[in-house]
Write a structure and sequence with these properties.
By secondary structure, the chain is mainly beta. It is built from two helices and 34 strands. Bound molecules: beta-D-fructofuranose.
């Protein structure tokens, strides 16, 4: 693993010429994704500014141009008409003001009429490296580039720690007001969210108070990327709690959870209907964000970062890492989120053929199990003789799936844990697996549970096996994300 000096990580970027070499070095990597958004160089992390605006989906993501390292963050911009075919639009936000001198950190977008607004955290650091996080805003100009407000909407509150960031803007019709949720940490190092409100998007923001979530007063040390959406008359709150271990998640201290309940914007209280749930059970899924302006009362659209803050991946050797998940449609069924790839994803899936045990490249595997399947094991990325691979062992009595990546050729993040447990609400009947060059996303029982992981198969790890008599259908996937160099 390469060691980076602070100067290297926070180096400013002035022109595309400075990074074209990095791009040329990685385009031919066997791990470049074919239907997932990935960085043109360096690192991609959190999805930002995900929004539907005037017939186009806009997505930005945290981008560090220099390598697989968290340093100076930009927002990189991609657009799509169908959430499946994505085009690189270049760097969408540059850290170039006093307030964001050490990075444009995460945030959200909001479409209002003809205008698109971006809200982000200006990561300011002084000469002693003391951090001041500002909540900043910009409006997209006619050329598609953001015009930043000269002043932040507001600065940090002194009665919380320096960790106050990731503004998510929502409009609440019952109040006829806009609200911003901010991920925060109390001075006693407990995770919190703060709420600001205003009558208009670019001015008048006042601190409304701390978000109260009864039962979650002591739950992790920082709530990154809080986000809220309304689905079928319920509120769904997601956030990424840090600095805590959670059941079934091995040694990881970074998670992404959701709560279903009711949000009262008068008392600033989110009352959960029951306990928390994992948004995804996989090794690598974090900082997910709901798209704004979706306008469907029964469905939300979500995208997450395939990666975790403290993790390291084999493509670090090639100076890049990270990608976005496939965007998902989310619905509520019996108080739980059900997730599936967005509707138009089917447009890049070829005709179905019976699976033959080989992974031909980017593909979707659909595995249907007989009614009384009992225990069985699916192994992805095995050798030709069926050895090795990443296994998913279903225990029918316990209704759990144990995911184990210890038999893969390339091992990494071993200390975080290579074995995870996926508890299911009902017997396992169906698994959809989306396989790209360095990731796999599993949707179990039509999306009642999802499992997202990076995976870096070597040349010989191109097969899969399944015990018992499941029906396996394979569809090849046509590449849908352009890998062109746009800065
Ligand atoms: C989450 C996060 C955010 C922050 C951003 C910086 O991964 O730590 O809280 O805004 O990444 O890149």
């Amino acid at each position: 693993m390469r060691t980076w000096t602070t100067e290297e990580r926070y180096r400013e970027l002035h022109s595309a010429d400075e990074i074209i070499g990095l791009h040329e070095k990685i385009v031919s990597s066997k791990y470049r994704q074919k239907f997932h958004i990935q960085p043109i160089t360096g690192l991609s992390s959190d999805p930002n500014g995900f929004v539907f605006h005037k017939g186009i989906w806009h997505l930005y993501y945290q981008y560090c141009p220099w390598g697989a390292v968290h340093g100076l963050k930009f927002w990189y911009h991609v657009t799509s008409k169908d959430l499946v075919h994505w085009t690189n639009a270049g760097i969408g936000m540059w850290p170039d003001t006093f307030f964001d001198n050490k990075g444009c950190h995460s945030g959200s977008a909001f479409s209002a009429g003809d205008d698109l607004y971006l809200f982000y955290t200006g990561n300011h650091r002084d000469e002693n490296w003391v951090r001041t996080p500002y909540t900043c805003a910009a409006k997209l100009g006619p050329d598609g580039k953001p015009v930043k407000l000269l002043q932040p909407l507001f600065g940090p509150r002194p009665d919380y720690s320096e960790h106050q960031r990731d503004p998510k803007v929502v409009y609440v019709p019952s109040q006829n007001k806009y609200f911003i949720f901010i991920g925060a940490q109390a001075l006693d190092k407990k995770g919190r969210a703060l709420i600001y409100r205003s009558d208009s998007l670019l001015e008048g923001w006042e601190f409304a108070g701390e978000l109260k979530v009864p039962g979650f007063e002591d739950f992790g040390g920082m709530w990154e990327c809080p986000c809220i959406v309304r689905i079928s008359g319920k509120d769904v709150l997601i956030f990424s709690p840090q600095y805590t271990k959670l059941p079934g998640r091995a040694e990881s201290t970074n998670h992404n959870i959701y709560l279903v309940g009711s949000m009262d914007y008068e008392t600033l209280t989110f009352t959960p209907d029951d306990t928390y749930h994992y948004l995804d059970f996989g090794f690598d899924f974090y900082a997910a964000q709901f798209a704004a302006n979706v306008n469907d009362p029964d469905m939300a659209i979500l995208i997450g970062w395939i990666g975790l803050p403290d993790n390291h991946y084999p493509t670090e050797e090639e100076d890049w890492e990270g990608s976005m998940s496939v965007p998902r449609e989310l619905r509520l069924v019996n108080g739980r989120l059900v997730q599936s790839p967005v509707r138009d994803f089917a447009s890049i899936c070829g005709s179905a053929r019976p699976g033959s045990g080989t992974i031909p490249g980017p593909c979707a595997l659909e595995i249907c199990l007989p009614e009384d399947a009992g225990d069985f094991t699916l192994k992805l990325f095995t050798k030709e003789d069926g050895s090795g691979g990443m296994s998913f062992a279903y225990d029918a009595a316990a209704q759990t799936v144990t995911a184990d990546k210890t038999q893969m050729d390339l091992r990494y993040n071993q200390a975080v844990g290579e074995v995870l447990l996926v508890p299911l609400e009902s017997g396992l009947k169906k698994i959809l697996v989306l396989i790209d060059s360095c990731s796999a996303e599993l949707f179990l029982n039509d999306g009642a549970a999802s499992f997202t992981t990076h995976v870096y198969p070597t040349e010989t790890e191109r097969f899969y096996t399944i015990t018992g008599d499941a029906q396996v259908t394979l569809r090849e996937i046509t590449p849908s994300v352009k890998d062109d160099f746009v800065v």
